[in-house]
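Re: weekly structure request thread

Next one in the queue (67 aa):
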Amino acid sequence: MRITALGETRDWPGGLTLQGWLDLAGVENQEIALVQVNGRDVPPGDRGKTALREGDRLTLLYFLGDS
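Done, posted below.
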């Protein structure tokens, strides 16, 4: 299935969850990333049950700096 993420569109295996994609794509520091699927925020607890579909667009945002 084709998914757009990290600035590129490419084929990924079907049946992936968002967490499965994060693992397969080798995304590091997943605990500090805000992840969106088609512009919708996905809380960390929902990543394993969020099924990805053909044509989905993933956005990863990292929070940098001190508070």
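The chain has a mean pLDDT of 91. The beta strands are 2-5, 8-11, 33-37, 40-42, 58-62.
Next request, please.
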